Fold:
Amino acid sequence: MKSETLLTKSETRSSAKNNLELIMKNNLIFAVTLMLLTSMSAKAQCNSEGLSNECIPKLTTGFNFLKSYKIDGVGGTKDRVEYSYVFTKGTQYLINICAPSQPTDGVLVTLYDSQRNKVASSKVNDQFVSAIAFPCNATGIYYIQYTFDGSTSYCAGSALGFKR
Amino acid sequence: MKKVLFAVLTLLIASCSGNKKTDEQAFLENLKADNAPLSAESSAVISEILQQIPSPLEIAVLLKQSGKKFNPDLLNSPDNLSRYNSNYKKALNLGIYGADLGYTNIYEQSKDGLNYIEAIKRLADGLSIGQFFDIETIGRLATNSKNLDSLLLMTTRNFNDINSYLQSQGRSNLSVLLLTGGWLEALHITTGVAANDPNNAVLQEKIGEQKVILNNIVSLLGFYKDSDQNIAGLLNDMENLKRIYDKVNITYTYKESTFEIVNGVMVIKDNSTTTIDITRDTVDEIRNTINEIRNKVIS
Structure:
């Protein structure tokens, strides 16, 4: 009876050790998976603020910085990002785009007037242009719309500058 | 010895957490005083309209490039700073001083600029947004005209950051006042310069086209008229101004634009036009009304 009890205790100890190893193994797998997922999610995150900051010094010489715009298509779930600004007659505006891959990673900007007439688009003959200069001849509210056309990152930044 | 060390550490931690609590309390009290409850839809509309308001810097550049001389008499003296004790006055005059700083920077008047930077920092501190101004760097940039581009960039970014921050903190009312102050000052300077050059068509047009922005400002102030008596009063003044602006006619004609690519940049040729009909009498009326509103704000 005594020896049976001892054996049972030994078995119990062995089983507990196995359980502990299993738990540790599971925890390790969980931790590694979590690390991988976190790293993948960090990679997938859109650093539109960083990209818009990159765009500011890329404004052509002579242009004064006005605004920076974040363009985050949330991995393709948003099909457009829109901002608006009052442009005034006699002032020239420059809008540029900075994307993770050159030149704009399928991000294009389209400018609409207050009546939603199309004024300009940065896609010409299937080519993406990374900057639009707009010498404004008609004061009013303009809509600066960013869309994605074959983009892989759905992520970019933009800056708006002006000069007289 | 251990007991003494423990007691000292406990006191240190208690004193640190005590200070933090005071700061947090001050911040929350500030927040509570500013906060007007708005629906998500209203907040989104406010945010959209706010981003449209042009920078006062655009007018300063126009004045400089059209050969107008620097006129400090048109600006709000930084000596008036002590008058601004309420958040309403602080936010409006932060916008006014911001426009004045832009004007002095464009004209490279570093001595005046430094006074405005100091006043701006103090107003911003009073609104718990002083962290956005690195006064040492701005001051250093202001003392050398070679740094003009960096100075303009830094101050514009600081004001943009403040506006984003205020909106994210549910304090859009202050953002509205800040931008209203900046716009008011820019229009005051323009009408002041135009008074000495009454036949200047470009300046008259510039004054006339402010109708577009005034409409935005009236819309923005309207969101707060029931929750803030000061803003209701300001809105009333702006509506009076709007009645004068009703005499200004802006005619827009759309015509499809053309473009060419120059050094990788798409250069648009805007074929649309606006014509702005404004009489000299209307310009005078606008100037007088703007002066009245501004005097209330800066006094």
